[in-house]
Write a structure and sequence with these properties.
Elements: E1 2-5, E2 11-15, E3 25-32, E4 36-46, H1 74-89, E5 97-99, E6 109-114, E7 119-122, E8 129-131, H2 140-154, E9 163-169, E10 176-179, E11 185-189, E12 192-195, E13 200-203, E14 208-211, H3 221-233, E15 241-245, H4 251-256, E16 262-267, H5 270-282, E17 288-291, H6 294-297, E18 308-311, H7 320-326, E19 333-338, H8 341-351, E20 355-363, E21 373-380
Parallel strand pairs: 2-4, 5-20, 15-16, 15-18, 16-17, 18-19
Antiparallel strand pairs: 1-2, 3-4, 6-7, 6-9, 7-8, 9-10, 10-11, 11-12, 13-14, 19-21, 20-21
Helix pairs in contact: 1-8
Length: 383
């Protein structure tokens, strides 16, 4: 991602298949809107000399990554992108903290597409399949499993129909699961793929979390556990009830451990809620885990002064209805997590009448892409 200006001075938000350096000149197809433009970079007319050779033969073609050729400067470029967004969208925000991804961070979940002949990722801005034999952005066991999956599909050991497949590995990355669109799962053994129904397990040292194969979980789980632990561990959080909303399989409830007297987790995925109950019980953490739609479940006046509302919503962010209910919450503190910068800033603006932004951090939890994870601590404003 990058930012440019049109001849009339209007802002242009640029999307590129490779990293963009400040000062580079590019050609782009621009779609103009009333106040700004959105452009797709098609060529570079002046490149930054700090560019390096991409570590992937499909850089610029595959739609999965967009930071190849930035090399060791990838984190710094993403930080500049975040700084620009926050300066425009949250001009009154407090100083914020940046957590750069370690070089070892790799994806533990990847989605592949099989069209009956080729297995790979979608070409950028297309549904055409780009064949791949490995993925340098993925954990090594996942990358090695790609040709094994293709062999099984070609041999009709697995369903040969065109569909999306997810490969997933636990933490540390080892055993690999392949999940078809209908939810059926296979595990890769030395002699090939075998039907499986067991969970994917993530060992974070003090905590073991499990979820169904194909279920939502952090993309780079070990790095996410470390980054969120560092961010939340540095903040002064209350110790009453933790309302873990959009709580998944209990990631944040487990991460915060015994810092709260009680926990209420709400998640609309019933299968995830079942795993949350099991995960938290295994850690000795009492929790009420509910399968419900968060905006419907939240009621006006939620919580007391020593409670924390933690929200990790989908990429689209909070609904207007939920933001309205949170204005009247009785809880004294809130943590908002967001993986879409624009939606995250929008939601902070919607909450601002009743909630004051106290702390802000951004972590690169999606290496080699333009995406980041933003985390904010807010305190209830009293009339």
């Amino acid at each position: 991602m990058g930012v440019g200006r049109g001849e009339d001075g209007r802002l242009i938000l640029l999307s590129a298949p490779l990293a963009l350096f400040p000062g580079e000149q590019v050609e782009a197809l621009v779609r103009w809107k009333p106040r700004h433009g959105e452009g797709q970079v098609t060529a570079w007319t002046r490149r930054d000399p700090r560019r390096v050779r991409a570590g992937c033969p499909l850089a610029g073609i595959c739609g999965g990554c967009s930071q190849w050729e930035a090399g060791p400067l990838a984190g710094a470029l993403k930080r500049e992108m975040v700084a620009d967004l926050l300066a425009r969208q949250l001009p009154g925000a407090p100083p914020w903290r940046w957590l750069e991804a370690p070089q070892s961070a790799r994806r533990h979940r990847i989605q592949l597409h099989w069209n009956g002949r080729e297995l790979g990722f979608h070409r950028r801005d297309s549904h055409t399949v780009v064949p791949v034999a490995g993925c340098p952005a993925a954990a090594e066991p996942l990358s090695r499993a790609i040709p094994r999956l293709k062999e099984a599909l070609e041999a009709r050991v697995l369903s040969p129909k065109s569909q999306r497949w997810e490969l997933a590995a636990g933490t540390p990355a080892g055993e690999v699961s392949a999940v078809a669109e209908d939810g059926r799962c296979w595990r890769l053994e030395p002699d090939g793929w075998h039907p499986a129904s067991g969970p994917v397990s993530h060992n974070f040292g003090p905590a073991l979390l499990r979820h169904r194969a194909g279920g939502f979980f952090q993309v780079c789980p070990d790095w996410a556990w470390s980054a969120f632990g560092e961010i939340l561990g540095a903040w002064s959080l209350p110790g009453g009830t933790l309302f873990d909303l959009y709580g998944g399989v209990g990631f944040f409830s487990a991460l915060l451990g015994g810092r709260f007297r009680q926990r209420i987790l709400v998640e609309n995925d019933e299968a995830a809620v079942e795993w949350a109950r099991a995960n938290l019980a295994a850690l000795g953490l009492e929790a009420l885990c509910l399968a419900a739609d968060v905006p419907e479940w939240v009621s006006p006046g939620l919580g007391a002064a020593d409670d924390l509302i933690l929200l990790d919503p989908p990429r689209t962010g909070l609904t207007p209805e939920l933001c309205e209910k949170l204005q009247t919450a009785g809880a004294g503190s809130m943590v908002l997590v967001g993986c879409d910068g624009a939606a995250f800033c929008r939601d902070l603006g919607r909450l601002a009448p009743a909630w004051e932004l106290k702390e802000l951090a951004v972590a690169d939890l999606f290496p080699l892409t333009e995406h980041v994870e933003a985390v904010a601590l807010l305190c209830k404003q009293h009339p």
